[in-house]
Amino acid sequence: MNVAVIGSGTMGNGIAHVFAQHGFAVALIDINQPALDRALGTITKNLDRQVAKATLSEEAKAATLSRLRTFTSLEAGVAGAGLVVEAATENVDLKLQIFRDLDQYAPAEAILASNTSSISITKIAAVTKRPQQVIGMHFMNPVPVMKLVEVIRGYATSDAVTQQVMDLSRQLGKIPTEVNDYPGFVANRILMPMINEAIITLFEGVAGVEEIDTVMKLGMAHPMGPLQLADFIGLDVCLAILRVLHEGLGNPKYAPCPLLVNMVMAGRLGAKSGEGFYQYTAGSKDLVVAARFRQ
Predict the structure, then answer these.
(1) Active-site residue 117, yes or no?
(2) Who contacts 62 (Cβ-Cβ below 8 Å, separation ≥6)?
């Protein structure tokens, strides 16, 4: 099966990497050629890391890279694809337009999947003429490392398509988990309120950034504290998902903390902007609390 991946950012290049490594011919699509070039550089670096750890041979690395092709044209990139995985920015209007275009250009039998972490698969499917072939494949970051794929069934997704996507996920060495299409699915419905509560705990002065994260790491065996994890995900992404939960479920418990809203408005988005709850310096792995939150 040929696979097309739309979006060459962190998630898109990770998804393309994993499919190519497991023998699939992959078309990586982005409107921006420099972004595609950066994505290939990232995939190459990640493959080099696997070679250095002796989990991949040089021959397997070369074979993986040979299966990757890049496209700036959606129409050309999805031609001949049996599966399309959309991994564009988490913006509902953008995703709906992409799926309208995919319905026009992708082969009639192709499965159309979205890597969305919160947007309704049913809503996405409704803009196509093949809602039974639309499904969610929510990979976790970093894709080459994390085992989970949250497989989300839209209202009209067929049993056959769901089973095929579950089987494909296993072929990638992943562990697929089937969930139904409700706001936040499972992963973010549970994770985002925890992150939000950690931000509220900071906002109300219960404890500092480092203290909150230490309690969760040492007391709850989390590999990363919720505030560090929020920085890693992107505070803008966390806010967008909380708003989907709040609007979709109508429950005030999902309302985003005012501190989170202010940080996003101020451009303090976490690791990708250089500052969130922690300060990030290129080339440094030290975890330094942002000056604003130092006690």
Answers:
(1) yes
(2) none
- Check residue 93 and give its pLDDT: 95
115 phi, psi to nearest 5 deg: -90, 15
Q: Is 138 a catalytic residue?
A: yes
Catalytic residue among 13, 120, 188, 196: 188
Beta-ladder partners of 27: 4, 69
158 is catalytic: no
Instruction: Write out the binding residues.
Output: 7-12, 30, 90, 95, 117, 141, 272
The DSSP line for 42-81 is: HHHHHHHHHHHTTSS-HHHHHHHHHTEEEES-HHHHHTT-
- Decide if pLDDT at 295 tops 80: no
* Pairing assessment for the beta strands 288-289 and 278-279 based on DSSP bridges: antiparallel
Alpha-carbon distance 138 to 115, whole Å? 4
Which pLDDT does position 21 carry in this prediction?
98
Catalytic residue of the set 2, 13, 114, 117? 117
200-237 tens-digit pLDDT: 999 999 999 999 999 999 999 999 999 999 999 999 99
**Residue with structure tokens 């929020």?**
230
Q: Is 262 a catalytic site residue? A: no
pLDDT tens digits, 267-293: 999 999 999 999 999 888 889 999 999
pTM over 0.70: yes
Any idea what DSSP says for residue 256? P
